[in-house]
Write a structure and sequence with these properties.
Elements: E1 2-6, E2 11-19, E3 25-33, E4 40-48, E5 54-62, E6 67-74, E7 80-83, E8 88-91, E9 99-101, H1 105-115, E10 123-131, E11 138-149, E12 157-163, E13 166-172, E14 178-181, E15 185-187
Parallel strand pairs: 9-10
Antiparallel strand pairs: 1-2, 1-15, 2-3, 3-4, 4-5, 5-6, 6-7, 7-8, 10-11, 11-12, 12-13, 13-14, 14-15
Amino acid sequence: MLTWQAEDGHGLEGTRLLLGAGGGFRALGRMVRTGPDGDYTASYRLVVADDGTVERLSVTSATAQRERHLTLNRTEDGFWLLDTGSGGTRAPFGGAVDVDLAHSPMFNTVPIRRLGLHTGVGTHTLPMAFVTLPGLEVQEVEQVYETVSVLDDAGAACVAFRWDDFGAELTVDADGVVQRYPGVAARLTPVAPGATT
């Protein structure tokens, strides 16, 4: 289990991450967020193929007013099928093979692992299907990922992330999973059994 705490202290994300062969993995997560724009919870199920591309994302979000559902499936011909439970649509999202979920460091992990930016130097401008929370609206955006430093002896690497005027240097572990996303969240370190806090 991985847990991130929002740097502003108003949110948590917990994820059960199952790494597979190659770049594939599955993640089952839940987010809880409070703030001036309202409180919400969200749960997700993410399936990433062996080639590191997103196959499927299912998200449910809930506020005091309503609950929303969204499923995105990527087809073999590169389109995304979006289903909200009341009908579906088909969209290319600029050829995106990645999905980004608002406020979630887990989703920045997807392109970092797929492109090996924690183990080799690279710069990539990527089309992205971005999912808002709690509204679950999907937008096509462009994000840039660039290696700052590859894995060091401590098992950490740094990858720069840019989107429009926003930028951050993400710290990732040996598996390419985000440890710290400045301004957004940091991964909590598990307490060893029997340790006192």
